[in-house]
Amino acid sequence: MADTEKKEPSAAEGEVQPDAPAPPYHVASGEEVVHAKEPPVRQLSRSLQGRHMQMIAIGGSIGAGLFVGTGSALRTGGPASLLIGFMTIGVMMLCTVQALGELAIIYPVNGAFYEYGIRFVDPAWGVAMGWQYSVGWMLTLPFEITAAGITIEYWKSREQVNPGVWCAVFLSALILIQVFGVRGYAFAFGGTEMVGLAAAEAANPRRSLPKATKQAFWRIFLFYVVNIFIVGLIVPSDSDVLLGASGANTKASPFVLAVQMAGIKVLPHIINAVITMAVISVANSCTYGSTRVLQAMASSGYAPSCFAKIDSMGRPIWCIVVQVAFGFLSFIAIGADSDTIFTWILAITGLSGQFAYATIMLSHINFRRAWKIQGRSIEQIPWRSPFGIVGSYIGLVLVALSLIATFYVALFVSDVILRVVPWPVMLTTGCAANRVTSRRRGFFRKLHGRTYYDLPLHHLQSLPEELDAWCQLT
Length: 474
Fold this sequence. Notes:
Layout: H1 2-7, E1 17-18, E2 25-26, E3 34-35, H2 50-57, H3 64-67, H4 69-106, H5 113-120, H6 123-152, H7 163-177, H8 194-197, H9 205-214, H10 216-234, H11 254-261, H12 267-299, H13 317-327, H14 338-373, H15 388-408, H16 413-420, H17 422-436, E4 452-453, H18 464-473
Antiparallel strand pairs: 1-4, 2-3
């Protein structure tokens, strides 16, 4: 115990101390603190600063879903439905990112909400969601590359330049970006929930994560609601050049059309160039979302062990190789209508995000429940979601409504196939995960991975009863 006191001279009662993600000691009621020597394990790089977290937290605000996919939604539902839909999903995402911020600060573990699903919901659910989320991001890479090719066709039609040329250019650029390591991802725009994945690689997650999550409201309001409102006022929903329209020229983003209708000659080209770069940046972030979850599952034994390998720069190298291999699916656009490919990949990957959001909010609800059961005060949580547990319930309801709406809009056989495809994939993955994790069940079992504690180490032995309850949660 004397050695422990010497190693923690700055610890004071009530002060939060950051420890390593996997403490090299085990404590049980009435036992001495035992230090175990473990072989060094190469970890993910912890080099992301606050500014990197801010950019990652922008999420899906700038990408194909907003700039390109809204064209089809505007044509189908009109401006009012489009605005209401984006406002509804914006509220859901706001609740999700706040709940995830609270969990990621107290549990900045590798794998983030995949691990939260295993710990706070059910092992089979967490593993199934992890695979669904990882594969979803793998398929999003060719989706974004295809979308980038669609924006390029604003200048050069596929009759003038083969779409495969743009696929090769964009995919080669993404491969080169991997050379820069983890910081190369920090300037990309991925899913809003990626701020939770990035927590395991943040230099100081307790400082950077709250700042990133607090600004989610303004990002959602400005990038989603305001932009959609302005576009809905300017662009007619029956335009022949919207994505998915029946006209011959279906290659223009509604944002580019809005500028064109204003009569400005040069600005549409500038806007389209910005959109193209934004879509490419989302394609870059795809390698982040899929590889980090896949590497975490491999480290836990839920994926092939080769995917757990991390190189000297802190990158899951074999996971990146698999992700880039999925990028070659974008070359399908050469021999088929890229609009059709765009729609199918979007349908396959869309519901994986909904399952991830539901998992985050379920994990937050059960975390708060476990925290209360262990007799802990809410004030002891380092950073709390401003919406609390009520926000997570609201988010769950909105996820359920969005899933119901997904089936409601499927009026034709082809649409039914598009909307239903992800469900058997999720159910099959869940059944397989249930068999793998059948021996690891237990709801509020002993957990691990906490980084911040409010009990100094040299006081642990003098508090056996409180410690026994505390270890059930940490």
